[in-house]
Predict the 3D structure of the following.
Amino acid sequence: MRPLLILTLLTSLSFFGCGNTTKDPVLEPSTEIQTAETAGGMMAGGKHDMGLNTEVTLSEEVSAAWQGAIIQVTAPDENIQRFDLPLDEAVTLGDTGLTATALVFVPDFVMDEGGISTRSPEAKNPALRLRVTEEGKPDYEGWLFAAMPDIHPFPHETYSIVLIGGLPVE
């Protein structure tokens, strides 16, 4: 009888609580809209509100081995063009009206509490910090990942841009 009484009491407490009369806070949906401009800014470098350290640290050896990246631009008619992007040099992407600049190339991308770095100098998990400009539109700045092109894709209504790989120093 006693175990049944204890079980009933515990069940009642779990259903009705322990007498706490305060209401749970109501969670309001966020009214902040994340655009390509704000999303790119979130990963620009340094510490952010999310608590992530996105500062990029590469050794001199790794930086000296890579002069940029290779991207692929696909038009709606499936016309595909490849472009070499030397670091910190604006490149016009054919007749798309877009200009791209490779800001940072990370050959073997890894991110942890220490920030963004590379596990090795080889292009095992290539990532590119890219800036794209188009006349009359805000600049886009974000990361492209060769192994995962659907993660942080370039947000454009007409063209897609994907990272093919690194542009090694010859």
